[in-house]
Amino acid sequence: MNARSTMQSKVQAYLLERRQAGFALKIEGEQLARFARFTDATGYRGPLTIALASSWAVANRLGHRITAARRIEVLRPFARYCRSWDRQSEIPPLRLFGPGHRRLTPHIYKDAELRTLMRAALKLHPPHGLRGHTCATVIGLIAACGLRISEAVALRREDVDLEQGVLQIRHGKFDKARLVPMHSSTRNALQRYVQRRDQDPQCRDGGAFFVFDHGRELTRERLHYAFRTVRKALRRRPRGGHRRYRLHDARHTFVCRRLELWYQQGVDIDQHILALSTYVGHAHPTDTYWYATATPRLMALAARRLDLLAGGGAA
User: Fold this and answer.
1) Looking at residue 301, what is its pLDDT?
2) Any catalytic annotation for residue 61?
3) Which one of 132, 173, 190, 260 is at 20 to 30 Å from 36 when CA atoms are compared?
């Protein structure tokens, strides 16, 4: 490796080293590959500079400043790697384009909205096919157990213990595994799905738990495409900061509904938040608090508890 090497070769060497150290870098790797193609397309052969990083950062399709800031975040570890063997390489400042993250208020689904989504999913093409049943079940599972989309999609048959009512998440975020107990209603819904799924002879022998017609395994891309189809059919605008319904907001909904239930039951939230954090696969309770949204019901319950505490009553 030398300063005159192509940027693609530098990125490949960096990703190889990091992945050998145990880092997946899937999204970061895709972004760095785009940066390398952007750079090499100009014929540039030289060190990574702040000017070069800035040119790629602002070349995003919509020109959003937050996208530029996130691109800089992705480039900084790679820039440090380049500087370790090429002292002419420059590390772009962290906030060159401002903060790379912001919290837009998620849409916390009402029960009726989730049922509407699931009914709409059942109407997906082909009529009476397995695709609609799969998407409807995944929507319900994420809302009922707070799974990540990637975790639901990755479930294998052996990961779903319907007798014990437990899901085994083998590769959560940071490759952490965990067990997720299910409510009996969720287990019953999955049992009904299995009965419907295995009516198709092409689906019986596959390893994936969730499949589409003709035994095609569910993927994130197929699920997101199906959800976009459902969303367009409903033509509803969400509450909160996002322009459209998001499937990921079903996970936010799970956290908020659990906190509402605990407030209603008089549970000590500070003592139980670690259990909730573990259940949804967060590394720290602060990550779980990030998911909490000030719904009217949650605020009313919290205010009621505060009034009880201020008045000396039992919480």
Assistant:
1) 66
2) no
3) 173
Global pTM value: 0.75
Sheet containing 160-161: order of strands: 160-161, 166-169, 178-181
Q: Is 291 among the residues known to form the active site?
A: yes
Per the listing, tokens 């059942």 go with 122
Strand partners, 98: 96
What pLDDT, on the 0 to 100 scale, is given for residue 296?
64
Q: What percent of the chain has pLDDT over 70?
A: 92
Whole-number Å distance between alpha carbons of 193 and 171: 23
Q: What's the pLDDT tens digit per position in 188-243?
A: 999 999 999 999 888 888 899 999 999 999 999 999 999 999 999 998 899 888 88
216 is catalytic: no
For residue 314, pLDDT over 70 is answered with no
Given the residues 133, 251, 252, 258, the one annotated as active site: 251
Give 214-254 as a DSSP string: GGPBP-HHHHHHHHHHHHHHHT-PPSSS-SS--TTHHHHHH
Task: Identify which of 164, 116, 168 has the alpha carbon closest to the alpha carbon of residue 143.
Answer: 116
Cis peptide bond upstream of 126, omega within 30? yes
What the block records as the tokens of 95 is 């906030």
Residue 304 is a catalytic residue: no
Quick check: is 26 catalytic? no
Told to judge if 173 belongs to the known catalytic residues of this protein, a careful annotator would answer yes
The answer to whether 278 and 181 are in contact (CB under 8 A) is no
- Asked which of 21-30, 45-54, 73-82 is least confident by mean pLDDT, the reply is 21-30
What CA–CA distance (Å, rounded) separates 270 from 237?
34
- In Å, how far are 126, 161, 275, 276 from 180, measured between CA atoms? 32, 10, 11, 11
Mean pLDDT, the chain, as a whole number? 90
* H or E segment to which residue 300 belongs: helix 296-310
